[in-house]
């Protein structure tokens, strides 16, 4: 065994003051391009449009819940979280529109305010900037807070671009998760709220939008080029349920596949292109 003083001298010699280790490193290093290195706001255009509903408005039934309490069996109805929000003039509010086929190195980087996923007694929501949403967008690498308002242990499940189950043992205690893979993450309850669902789009660029109260959307600073413009909306139809074999209560619910309408779009420098989408009940699979 080496004497302790010899080991210290050896370490000191290795650490050295002459930077000999640094001098002997390879002198040619290939630079790795980081995302958005080539984004040029002077070479961009804008996409605008409106999402509207065609035909009769769907009759979306509320979801009936059965609870066993000290006073006996109680039946409660909660709204279907995937029901479309259609204004009086027929436009679709809170619809999702995004670009597909953007080179992340050329695109404007995504940004988002602090984001929190919250599980409540009757719904699952995503809060951004103090506003509650059914669907939200965050950049790749974002840290998102997850919490529950329940006083008993609950959990939030993620499927899709990320796969996880986060248990929440205490009311309002926050668990933080980093979302590192781009794509859509479907969020559901892992603790009995079988109807509760929300979506988190993890984005490599800034070209995601929700339609406003007038059904409008805008995607500014899009690099000139050709893309797919996607209008996305969750499906409210229930394809099936799973029940607890002992209580016969529903423990999981499967909704139909989300609807995507796609339009090819060509963006020119300093130009504005208008693309409108129309959704209808026939688009949504039962």
Automatic annotation (TrEMBL):
A GO MF label: carbohydrate binding
Gene3D superfamilies: Carboxypeptidase-like, regulatory domain
Keywords tagged on the record: Lipoprotein, Signal
SUPFAM superfamilies in alphabetical order: Starch-binding domain-like
Organism of this sequence: Limnoglobus roseus
Protein name: Lipoprotein
Cross-referenced InterPro entries: Carb-bd-like_fold
PROSITE patterns linked: PROKAR_LIPOPROTEIN
Keyword Signal attached: yes
Domain of life: Bacteria
Region forming the signal peptide: 1-22
């Amino acid at each position: 065994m080496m004497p302790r003083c010899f080991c210290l001298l050896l370490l000191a010699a290795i650490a050295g003051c002459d930077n000999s280790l640094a001098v002997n490193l390879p002198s040619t290093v290939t630079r790795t391009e980081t995302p958005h290195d080539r984004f040029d706001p002077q070479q961009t255009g804008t996409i605008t449009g409106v999402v509207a509903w065609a035909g009769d408005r769907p009759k979306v039934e509320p979801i009936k819940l059965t609870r066993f309490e000290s006073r006996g069996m109680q039946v409660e109805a909660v709204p279907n979280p995937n029901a479309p929000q259609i204004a009086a003039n027929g436009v679709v509010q809170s619809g999702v529109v995004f670009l597909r086929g953007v080179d992340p190195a050329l695109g404007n980087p995504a940004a988002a305010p602090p984001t929190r996923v919250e599980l409540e007694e009757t719904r699952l929501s995503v809060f951004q900037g103090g506003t509650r949403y059914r669907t939200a967008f965050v950049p790749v690498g974002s840290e998102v807070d997850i919490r529950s308002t329940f006083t008993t242990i609950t959990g939030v499940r993620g499927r899709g671009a990320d796969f996880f189950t986060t248990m929440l043992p205490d009311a309002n205690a926050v668990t933080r998760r980093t979302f590192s893979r781009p794509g859509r993450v479907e969020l559901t309850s892992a603790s009995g709220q079988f109807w509760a669902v929300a979506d988190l789009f993890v984005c490599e660029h800034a070209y995601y939008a929700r339609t406003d109260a007038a059904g409008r959307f805008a995607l500014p600073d899009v690099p000139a080029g050709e893309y797919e413009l996607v209008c996305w909306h969750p499906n409210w139809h229930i394809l099936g349920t799973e029940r607890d074999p002992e209580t016969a209560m529903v423990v999981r619910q499967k909704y139909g596949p989300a609807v995507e309408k796609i339009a090819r779009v060509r963006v020119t420098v300093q130009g504005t292109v208008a693309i409108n989408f129309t959704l209808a009940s026939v688009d949504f699979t039962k």
